[in-house]
Amino acid sequence: MKATAITMLMLTLHHMCFSSAQECPSTHDLMTSLRQVEKMLAVHEASYQQGLRSLRKKLTALHNSTVAMFKIDKNAVSCPKPEPPAHGRRLGRVFGVGHEVHFLCKPGYELIGPRTRVCLESLRWSGQQPMCRRESGFNSTGNSLASFSPAARSSLSSSFPVSAALSGSSSVLSPPATSSASPLTSSSSSSVLPTSSSLSASVRPSHCTHFLGSTRCTCDVGFTISGRDNNICTDINECRLFPLGQPGRLCVHQCVNSPGSFHCFCPDGYDLATDGRSCTDIDECETRMHNCTADQVCVNTYGGFQCAAVTCPHMKNATYIKTSPMRCERNPCMLGDKACTQAPNSISFHFLSVVSNMSAPRVLFRVSAARVLGDTLRFGLAGGRGRGHFSVQRSGRQTGTLLLVTPIKGPAALEAEVEMSELEHNALLGRYLTKVTLFVSPYEF
User: Is 420 in contact with 377 (CB distance < 8 Å)?
Assistant: First the structure.
């Protein structure tokens, strides 16, 4: 850039000399003057660069001092970390001025004190430290605050005694948890459920804080802001938001709203599960909470129990003897007594418990022969109540399967008689009968 400026200056001087009558300086004098001008420009440029660097340093220093002056110490404007109450927990991780934290209690405990606290400008939390107090009348199987994870009942499977010729097994898949119906079991009684709280407890004033010229109002958990000036908190009815029988419902059986929360309840014969929303069947037979006699068989059902009597049948041409609690066998027939030989060689009894409206088709029971003496085995339905709901199909060379083909709405008790016949050259060698009794719960869980 300097060379270009000097060259242009030389051309200008030569042009002025040739266009005027004055005497022009010599080339040597002209070059000397130009070098002096170049040195002078270099000195001015160096001075300018030095001044620019000095100005930049001053601006940087001024910026750093300004940032340091206005830098915020987060610890200096934060409230101390609030501790969660015993048997409860705290929601919220920011403890700066104007921020909120919320408190909840575990199932079986009620919160005493504010549910929400705000960090004030004085670097103190509003209100008093809350505490969790055990609810009166709460026990390990009582009703508590609900949560949202479903509980599944384990699959039901059982078998009956195996003779030298036959064996049997059952398979009932666990049904999905759904809504309920009215109970009807041998030990059922109507449940007395609490009602929702009064209207006054469902409305409370909001918590308002003033910070930097603005007002912020909040409500406790389970309430929503309302009113013209956001000064009222109204209870949220969770049971109405998530009604029974719809996806996302809060309770499997019954939901009862309470101020700021809700409770799930189960019918008689069930305990509230650990998730607070599902119902777990009580096994009255295992816990000896039944009134069956020594001659009866206690059968646990979903929501209750049944006392079943196993007695051998009385037939005109055949007599039976009870060889086990669930099996009767025919006494030997007289030679040539065809009516006696046509009667079943053995009769087995089996009891199954299922829920209402269980999906179909579904495998209920399997009958199989431990060994085959003849050349053919046949399976079929011999009788029983509710035959339209059942079907028998062959599932193997020596196995037949009892199927539920249409859903059954409970409460109900149905019976299916599965017959297995053994033949040799189409001549009957023996008949074996399995009486399957199905106890259908009034509930779908």
Answer: yes
